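YM 10:42: MET7A protein sequence, as discussed on the call
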Amino acid sequence: EATASALLLRAGLALLAWPIYLLSFLGIWEPFCKKVFFPFFLEKISGAHDKKSKKHKQELFHNLPDFRGPSGELRLLEIGTGSGSNFQFYPAGCKVTCTDINPNFQEGLSRNMKKNQHLHYEQFLVAAGEDLRQVPSSSVDVVVCTLVLCSVHNVSSTLREVLRVLRPGGAFYFLEHVAAEHSSWTYFWQQVCYPTWKLVFAGCCLTRELWKNLEEAKFSELKLQHISVAIPWMPIEPHIMGYGVK
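YM 10:58: structure's back
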């Protein structure tokens, strides 16, 4: 739980961000954030995050072709595609279905699609991770999710949907920021920033221990490692990455 000093600093941060709290109270912030601020900000932070995480993503995605279906094709579904910063890591000929709860990333998305013409883009669905009902069960070889589980409403039901849409033997690839070690300064700052961060960044939670959700989900095999992706002034250094097999 947050200590007294963390709570005091948290109140100070809320004071600094009072205009956003006011706009939120008036019902103005959320639509503005969804349409304008978050897509703009996410593209900026994705750029910084991509530079820092590039070698991790190359390592993570290098064995994607191992999960090709019996037909030799790789059908991939991405949850929370955003502006498509993962496209560059997918193997040539891969059939991609993009999903995002927020349809306002079109500009960055079409830019990244033009840059990555080695892929076949099947469809774009506006859908939450917890509700992929437009996707038939056991219909994809791979599901990818990066920096998304921090902001879904329910991690367990998102993972249940992932397992539903994957064919048996298919894999779920993830790279996510998570809660820091509880005794660390990073965790202290995560506690301080938590409410304001969640409001400003469209529901992003700083202190989720996502490795526990992944261990509880019913994967037949789970490869998971804790890594560090440091972005200056951002309390999101601890990450996990890996894949789980259905």
